[in-house]
Amino acid sequence: MKKYALFLGCTVPVRAQHYELSARNTAKQLDIEFVDMNGASCCGFPIKAVDAETALLIAARNISIASKMGLNIVTLCNSCTAMLSDAQLELKNNRFYKKFKELGFTYPQEITVKHFVRMLYEDIGVEKLKKSVKVPLNNLKVISHYGCHYMRPSYLYGFDNPEVPHTFDELVNLTGAKSLQYTDKKMCCGGSVLGIDEGLAVTMANHKLNIAESNEADALISICPFCTVMYEDNQRKAEEKFNKQYNLPVLYYPQLLGLSFGLDKNAVGIRFNRVRPNLLLEKIGGQ
Amino acid sequence: MINLKNADPTFKWEIAKQEGGKQILKCFGCSDCAASCPVRYFDERYNPRKIIRLTLLGMKDQVLSSPFLWFCAHCHACTEHCPQGIPVAELINAIKNYAVENGYCPEGYKIQVELLQKMGRLYEVEDFDLKKRQKIGLPPVDKTIPEVAKILEKTGILNKVGK
Asked: Which residue ranges does the record assign to the Cysteine-rich domain (chain A) (predicted)?
């Protein structure tokens, strides 16, 4: 059994419980044990723009908790992955160690930080995952959205190809669903500018919604709670602004994976999806 | 119009001292950052090359007071493209950090710092959320994490944003 410290961050536990639920339930199917991190806080990313050192220290404190547990971290949010990876690298380089120690934090054991999806790809592997697929989702074609901080910056991750990413497409394809090739695959969702200029953020989100529509995708598959905020929660705003009607379901990857494992729709929290994926469910066997 | 009489030649050195700002002096202005920027793709008011160029020229007030500085989504598309290997998103972040130190902090970020001081997280965990979590079989999460306030105190970020 593989064992990880599960880092939830701010958004997932209160705004994306279906992401958390489906991640935990698919992990169980794969013999993965998630241990909760008591006392874990915000990752620090949101205030990096205000003061990078503060953000790094907040992230490092979270790493300290997992380090004391002796476990590698698995994250669900792309930005949490970036911030924690950043701090992990700095801890290795002893860059801000003085303040880190003065605050009473320790780093007894070197640990790694991986996004849930990267963990599936690297630690479990496509072949093994494929063996767990009981209900191939053959009728579906979907748009896979990587989100910026899944593979960028490459100096931090050294994983996948930041220009032509492919790992997530492979993971989607193994469920039986077809991950479509499309232009602007690595385009940003706009989430990071939402608080600065909502109109611009919605315009950025609309771009990919539009691509999904023109490719007749059954859903957009997301691996980041903030990308989902842009594509699902703000879909109505994009529809109003651009006079469109998308009605595009946005599923978290573990929801899709869970359905292909034969998990019940409640076990992957489908009822919490804001855009009802009824048609999609019909297509994969009328659950 | 740029009037170099108003330039502050020390500005670029100040940025180079910031976390993530060191490599600004390597920039030769090729514009690959702007060409690869998804924000610029939709809104020409944001231009990372222009921000870096103005910084190198010493146009401190113009750079720090620009609302468009904050349009950077920190997506690192520029970082991947820069032929000089400059982590451009970190560089823009360094300029943002310096702007905050000089009194230019967008209201939204001030609120985020306050929320972190109060709760250690951005979204409040309400009893409703905890009940919902319990109902679907998810473990409880901490409502507040007071240790985060200690970090904010240690780095003096509250003073920086004027709180």
From this structure: 4-84, 143-230
Q: What is the 3-state secondary structure (H, E, C) of A154-215?
A: HHHHCCCCCCCCCHHHHHHHCCCCEECCCCCCCCCCCHHHCCCCHHHHHHHHHHHHHHHHHC
Which candidate in B19, B32, B114, B152 is best for mutational testing of the A interface (most A CBs within 10 A)? B19
Task: Return residues 111-140 of A near B (CB < 8 Å).
Answer: none
CA distances to A34, A65, B113 from B121, in Å? 21, 16, 10
Q: Which of A49, A99, A153 sits opposite B79 (nearest CB)?
A: A153
pLDDT digits (tens, 9 = 90+) for B77-128: 999 999 999 999 999 999 999 999 999 999 999 999 999 999 999 999 999 9
- What is the number of residues in chain B? 163
pLDDT along chain A (287 residues), means of 10: 96 97 98 98 96 96 98 98 96 85 95 98 98 96 97 96 96 98 95 94 98 98 97 98 98 98 96 96 80
Distance CA B66, CA A113 (A): 35
Residue among A92, A97, A105 nearest A39 (CA):
A105
What per-residue confidence (pLDDT) applies to A287?
47
What is the distance in angstroms between the Cα of A171 and the nearest Cα belonging to chain B?
A: 23
Name the DSSP class of A108: -
Handedness of CA A261, A265, A267, A272 (dihedral sign): positive
What residue of B is the nearest CA neighbor of A187?
B38
Cα gap A212→A185, rounded to integer Å: 11
